[in-house]
């Protein structure tokens, strides 16, 4: 009985596996996808931190504006600034008190920088001048 040895191409077709080149291409694609996910995660963490600082700055600006609104004595016209601690963080605030078209009202604008290159939190209220 004589057996014939199949040609090399027959071995490859019968094997059904992947070549080294195919495995390297697949590994490169998965590596690029993994790097993209790591970068996306870093951006998400930074954005969450910026959002946290911005929300705290907005809460601080609102609290300061409502303090001026509920104070029995009207604040003096002009600009002033100071520091306040909120949620364990120190925020520097600036306020501007000015007149409105209605002489019986004052415009109170409180600005609190959020930090991180984001726009500051600004809150404006009108309160009685007397």
Keywords:
single chain; 130 residues; alpha+beta; Pantoate--beta-alanine Ligase, Chain: A,domain 2; 4-stranded antiparallel β-sheet; 2 helices; 4 strands; 28% strand
Describe the structure in brief.
The protein is of the alpha+beta class.
Task: Describe this structure as you would to a colleague.
This protein has 130 residues and is α+β, with helices and mostly antiparallel strands. It has a single domain (17-128), classed as Pantoate--beta-alanine Ligase, Chain: A,domain 2. It is 45% helix and 28% strand. A four-stranded antiparallel β-sheet has the order 1-2-3-4, with helices on one face.
Instruction: Briefly note the structural class of the backbone.
Output: alpha+beta
Number of separate domains: 1
The number of helical elements comes to 2
* Count of DSSP strands: 4
Name of the CATH first level? Alpha Beta
**Low-pLDDT sequence parts:** none
CATH architecture: 2-Layer Sandwich
Blueprint (SSEs and pairs):
Elements: H1 8-15, H2 20-70, E1 78-86, E2 89-99, E3 105-112, E4 121-128
Antiparallel strand pairs: 1-2, 2-3, 3-4
